[in-house]
Amino acid sequence: MSYVPPEGPGSHKNIRGLEPETEIDLGLGSSSSAASEIASAVGAAGMWSPDALLIEHRSLWGEIWRRFRRDKFAMVGVVIIILLVLVAVLAPWIAPHDPTKQYDEGLTMQGMPVGPSSQFWLGTDTLGRDLLSRLMYGARVSLVVGVLANGFALVLGVIFGLTAGYFRGGVETLLMRMTDVMMAFPIILLAVALVSVLKPSIWILILVIGIVYWTPMTRVIHGEVLSIREKEFVDAARLTGCTNRRILSRHILPHLVAVILVYTSLGLATTILFEATLSYIGLGIQPPTPSWGQMISEGQPYYLSAPHLVIYPGLAIMITVLAFNLVGDGLRDAFDPQQRRR
Amino acid sequence: MTHRSTSGGTVATVAVLGLVLVLALGLAACGAAPGDGGSGSPTSSSDQPKQGGTLTLSFLTEPSSLDPAIAWNVIDWQVEHDIYQGFLQYAHEPGQAGTELIPCLATEVPSTANGGISADGKTYTFHLRKGVKFQPPVNREVTAADFKYSFERMMLEPRAPATSFYMGVVGADEFMKGKAKEITGFKVVDDYTVEVTLKSPDLSFLNAVTMDFCDVVPKEWVEKWGKQFNRNPLGTGPFVFQKWTPGQEIVLTRNPQYWEQGKPYLDTIDYQLSFSPSTALLKLQRGEVDVLGDGVPTADLVRIQVDPKWKQQVFTQPLVAISYMFMNVQMKPFDDVKVRQALSWAIDRDKLVKLQGGQAMSLWQFYPKGMPGYEEGKVYYGYDPAKAKQLLAAAGYPQGFKTMLYTDNVDPNPKLWQSVQADLAAVGVQAGLKTMSNNTYYTQQGTPKTLTAGSFGWWMDFPDPSDWISPLFSKASAVEGGMNSSFWWSPELEKMFTDAQAMTDPAARIQKFTEMQAYIATQAPYVPCYQPIQTTMCTETTGGFYLHPVYQIDPTQYWKK
User: Fold this and answer.
1) Most buried residue, A103, B111, B128, B322, by most Cβ within 10 Å?
2) Which one-letter DSSP state was computed for residue A248?
3) What is the mean pLDDT of chain B?
């Protein structure tokens, strides 16, 4: 850490001007490699000039972004997610048909779904509804539920993890043991029980998934906070009289941003999958609103006679989950200061 | 954060290969067009019956009870028919012939000609077969006293759902109220003769007494097992109960001292439970299951009908059964008859038939085809969404209204009721659809003021319209645990029913029941939707397979080739 002198006279200052500026290791290595960098820059420039001493300013986030951008798989994931969000947002405009409209021509004479045709690009489902439109609207459900549920889990996880990790003692024991108990619960059964008792609706679904998924976040945050609170700048902050709240918000929380980002993107993959699972067993979104998991469940008896009913929603789920996982992995690698530069 | 390295090359290859594979499968499968489907013609197995072998049947739902006094579910009766017997039975023939009554534990069917029915039509005399024994380990001969015990036990049983069918027996009222120790109208004349006296003539009485509720049970066995009797059934039938592994299987074995010579053919019947119809079909094709208890699922119907190996094994019969939408008159806005009449025009029955691959018939009246009282070609209401909207507006709902629709999760109900939901939406009624398990649904529909509207079905117990009116439209059934899901009844209908039941001229009586249907239509407590056509399959090794109009699947008559 470095000591940043307070601003000059007249400027707003507070007694916390003595507060240490937290510094995050940029991963530029020790001073020796910095020196070698300078040397190579100088060598490349060919002559010793003041300009050659100017090293390109690398901000923290710029560096992270640079590393992330280099990860091809992560970028593929980002592209897919952007496309997904676009489809979900623009669904009412770009979907070829109304997803709940049951077309007479959507069924064969024997009442079976029709395959891909010029009218129904991916075919129809068991009630003669356009599959492509249902996939597009299903993206909305998956994303909304996934994001909100994950956000809810995130908030809970951060609060519990921070509290447990920072305050230690009885609070920590209580919270972490509670977390252990929650983790031991068979989550599908818990979700089944909760959704059966409460009237199924999208908010209940978000609540259920959130309750079930705050546990991994809590543990990770708890672990991180445990290590961060031992660092010297936290002691220094305490010495200068910062309240616990200020320490948590200004000194510890920023360090958690990386962890939160990584686990959020990985968590989105899991929550989307979990929503599909609950809809598959009939506890999630109620018909006729389409949801990918529900579409698989409805199409399952037809897997031999009309497999497109199962394959397309399955592919949609798979690609979405893969995209979020790729982004999550990429973020994790990008934030990791030990990562060898590529 | 831990240090992580990804070997990008491997991931890429695997991911791409995986995607390509799945896409290829998907595209290839889309090219397969559904077949044209001819109907499989049932070839009758004309080989001679053979003794021995095990027949395996697959059902999704397991019985709720095997106590004949209580059980009224289709699967309950399916298993009970192998174990219990009563005075009479139905001829074991397909089609119309199967609705004729023939003797079982009685030596003949009482009629006015043979004196079994008295001249005034009120007294029925049953002569019992001699030497019929209860199954092991009870092993003693059945006498008239056993029939009286079984009947009175059933009437007293608090959970018995069908006592209303027998309130016409003299002395039943007093017995039920606790004022008498026995039902005086059910008399043991001697060890082998039973005489039943009714308050007034009832042409459907013989059918009523042939229902499983009156099957004979041994007193000592019932008292030994008490409440567990429903899991330890014992009667006089061709098969003896061996074991019931809940949720898995029920096994019955041949009754070594069965009274009918040469029967049964099979050594063992094995009911496999909890398999979905799709799984059962796969098992049948592998030879692990002999008969599909729940029929051929719609999804696979077309595929099977064009498969040269299997299309011969498909059997169908129109079920004398109906599927309908009930509207609970205890809950708004279904208390308004105009609303119910309006919705009777809103549902597209032909589409529901199409969604079942043609394995159903559109129904425009309350009696199904095959039930006496059915009016050929008659259409009460029809399918006219514009008219439905108009009538709704006239009833005070020009913008429609919001409500909830319920059904169970047994295929194809969720699919069919999404179609109904869409039909209702087309006339302005915004209905949320909720599905639940079959057992939960069965209880909820019988609970007053719980479900607003939803699906229900009724399968024939015996071929007489009193089996329709009494359980579905009567005051006695509009109670907790009853089958009258709309909780609708009316004094006019009660009077018409009492009058009809007292009639002695069969033709005039049926005519009266037809008039009842017309009256019910004006009140529209239900919207009749379709009549199912039972479609099922058996393996080639199942001999003597046929579908019975009342028993449906009748394993006591099948054999293993």
Assistant:
1) B322
2) I
3) 87
A54 touches chain B (CB under 8 A): no
Interface touch B8/A312, C-beta < 8 Å? no
> Which are the contacts of B105, defined by CB distance < 8 A and separation ≥ 6?
B85, B86, B87, B128, B129, B132, B142, B216, B236
pLDDT of B2 strictly over 50: no
Rounded Cα–Cα distance for residues B279 and B381 (Å)? 39
In terms of average pLDDT, the best of A230-239, A283-292, B11-20, B272-281 is: B272-281
Q: What pLDDT score was predicted for residue B390?
A: 92
CA B306 – CA A304 distance, rounded (Å): 14
Q: Is A287 close to B433, i.e. CB distance below 8 A?
A: yes
Q: With contacts defined as CB-CB under 8 Å, which chain A residues touch B34?
A: 108, 110, 112, 305-306
pLDDT tens track for B236-289: 999 999 999 998 999 999 999 999 988 899 999 999 998 888 899 999 999 999
Q: How far apart are CA B149 and CA B154, in angstroms?
A: 9
Say whether B26 and A301 touch across the interface (CB within 8 A): no
Choose the mutation target among A68, A98, A108, A324 for the interface with B, i.e. most B CBs under 10 Å: A108
A262 contacts on B by Cβ (under 8 Å): 1
Half-sphere exposure of A33 (CA within 13 A, CB side): 5
| Complete DSSP assignment for B19-58 | HHHHHHHHHHHHTPPPP--PPPPPPP--SPP-S--EEEEE
B323 within 8 A of B57, measured Cβ to Cβ:
no
Identify the pLDDT of residue B26: 44
Band of residue B385 on the pLDDT scale cut at 50, 70, 90: very high
- For residue A307, give the chain B residue with the closest CA: B29
Among B2, B30, B277, select the one facing A123 at the smallest CB separation. B30
pLDDT score for B25: 47
3-class DSSP assignment, residue B132: coil
The percentage of residues in chain A with a pLDDT greater than 90, rounded to a whole number, is 14
The region of weakest confidence among A25-34, B105-114, B392-401, B468-477 is: A25-34
Q: Which has more pLDDT, A14 or A78?
A: A78
Q: Is the pLDDT of residue A247 over 80?
A: no
CA of A237: how far to CAs of A19, A172, A252, A264, in Å? 6, 22, 11, 29
Q: Return the pLDDT at B19.
A: 54
Instruction: Work out the end-to-end distance of chain A between its first and last CA atoms, rounded to an integer number of angstroms.
Output: 27
Q: How far is it between the farthest Cα atoms of chain A?
A: 87
Residue A180 has pLDDT above 80, yes or no: yes
Residue numbers of A between 249 and 278 with CB closer than 8 Å to B: 258-259, 262
Residue whose structure tokens are 């949801």: A291
CA distance B304 to chain A (A): 10
d(CA A161, CA A185): 19
Give the integer Cα–Cα distance in Å for A325 and A323.
5
Q: Is the confidence at residue B398, as pLDDT, over 50?
A: yes
Q: List all residues 6 or more positions away from B534 whose beta carbon is below 8 Å from its beta carbon.
A: B295, B316, B317, B318, B319, B547, B552
If contacts are CB pairs under 8 Å, which of residues 186-215 in chain A contact chain B? 200
Give the pLDDT of residue B36. Answer: 27
Between chains, do B303 and A333 touch, taking CB under 8 Å as contact?
A: no
Q: Hey, what amino acid is at B538?
A: C
Cross-chain CB nearest to A288 (options B30, B297, B418) = B418
| Mean pLDDT over the full length of chain A | 79
Q: Does A329 touch chain B (CB under 8 A)?
A: yes
Q: Which of A102, A123, A338 sits opposite B419 (nearest CB)?
A: A102
Spatial distance between the Cα atoms of B291 and B558, rounded to a whole number of angstroms: 11
pLDDT at B408: 84
CB contact under 8 A, B22 and A305: no
